[in-house]
Write a structure and sequence with these properties.
Helices cover about 35% and strands about 25% of the residues. It has helices spanning about 10-20, 45-55, 60-65, 90-95, 105-115, 160-165, 235-240, 245-255, 295-315, 320-350, 355-365, 370-380; strands at about 1-5, 25-30, 40-45, 70-75, 80-85, 100, 120, 125-130, 135-140, 145, 150, 170-185, 195-200, 205-210, 215-220, 260-270, 275, 280. A 7-stranded mixed sheet has the order 5-4-13-14-15-12-16, with helices on both faces. Helix 1 packs parallel to helix 5, helix 1 runs parallel beside helix 9 and helix 4 (about 90-95) runs parallel beside helix 12. The longest helix is centred in the last third of the chain and has 30 residues, at about 320-350. It binds flavin-adenine dinucleotide (FAD).
Length: about 400
Amino acid sequence: MDAVIIGAGMGGMTAALALEQIGVTTRVYERVTENKPVGAAISVWSNGVKCLNYLGLSEQTRLLGGIVDSMSYVDGHTGETMCRFSMQPLIDEVGQRPYPIARADLQHMLMDAYGMDRIHFGQTMVAVEDGPDLATAIFADGSTVSADMIIGADGAGSITREYVLGGPVSRRYAGYVNYNGLVAADDAIGPATEWTTYVADGQRVSVMPVAGDRFYFFFDVVEAQGLAYDRTAARAVLRHHFADWAPGVHALIDALNPAATNRVEILDLDPFDTWVKGRVAVLGDAAHNTTPDIGQGGCSAMEDAIALQWAVRDHPGDVHTALQSYQLARAERAGELVLRARKRCDVTHGKDPAVTARWYAELREEDGSNIIRGIVGNIMGGPVTPVE
Ligand SMILES: Cc1cc2nc3c(=O)[nH]c(=O)nc-3n(C[C@H](O)[C@H](O)[C@H](O)COP(=O)(O)OP(=O)(O)OC[C@H]3O[C@@H](n4cnc5c(N)ncnc54)[C@H](O)[C@@H]3O)c2cc1C
């Protein structure tokens, strides 16, 4: 069997690695001409880490991951700690430490594991077609490639999804913008092994460690969609939005590199159950585009990759049944995570200010157990984290 994979993001690369693990020949096509991930880092929660372990990348992942021993919530205005708790109960319960990882590091790790020089960069797929014996991808330069199956891991704006669903779908603006980047770890911002989140006014500022004594940081700002962004103004924009916030937030704004600070408008997509048309399937953000509010989009893409492997393994020589079985294994779980993230997004970003105020009050009473229960609920339920 062979597979063509469109997109060399974390979904496409883990899918390629997973399929090759069971002897499927893969070819990966990526529109960008070089590996340049958008965004600074992600939190790979324990389910994502378990997927990477399954793919034989446990040691590399551990070396790239930041050590998060504790989490804290801090009042954005006063700097007062609302709650602080150990991550150990979570690690004990799910059997794996989560790892925040710089995106460039994660992407390199996956591409190197597959073979950087095997990836066909600079190839933009413009159409895909199913056929009785093979499926075919058509590229902008007019070239075509056919295989037993085509896996569209072509991200949130997927054209494979358009093909599978029979038309375009509209994504929904979630109401906030995420400014993110990497900065040297500094106690003035937060403790080196803590995931610190400042909250107030339906906005949040968060830092968490990644390898190399760095913090991944992000600022969630409730602002209109489509505003012009001049990177050089990042510091001024953030100073404006967080003028009366705590000293730790200002230490972060002072330390960040404006030229390397990304502005990402956050959108998501209503879950849908049709992921497959004949020999063509979607995977990752193409199949389930979520807000990042529970940090599960990329983890879910990795879960797709493992589920795809198992479906193909269990239906040798029968692509149609394998892909239907993949869809059945994944659509409900992935859709649930999208809806959970949406719910969390609304609470965090003050959709109903009374609900957000109640959450802030709860954080002051929190000993960690409710938050950990919620995170464990997100982590459990995928292929490598089955619920007993
Ligand atoms: C601000 C932010 C924070 C996030 N934080 C987290 C987090 O903490 N934890 C987590 O698990 N997830 C997080 N996510 C989600 C995560 O980034 C995505 O779920 C993940 O990147 C999806 O991977 P993917 O491979 O499906 O898509 P992508 O990473 O988008 O990759 C798709 C690839 O396909 C290529 N491509 C697209 N169209 C074509 C085409 N026509 N032809 C050829 N190539 C094409 C693109 O160039 C791209 O390289 C976050 C997202 C955002 C926006």
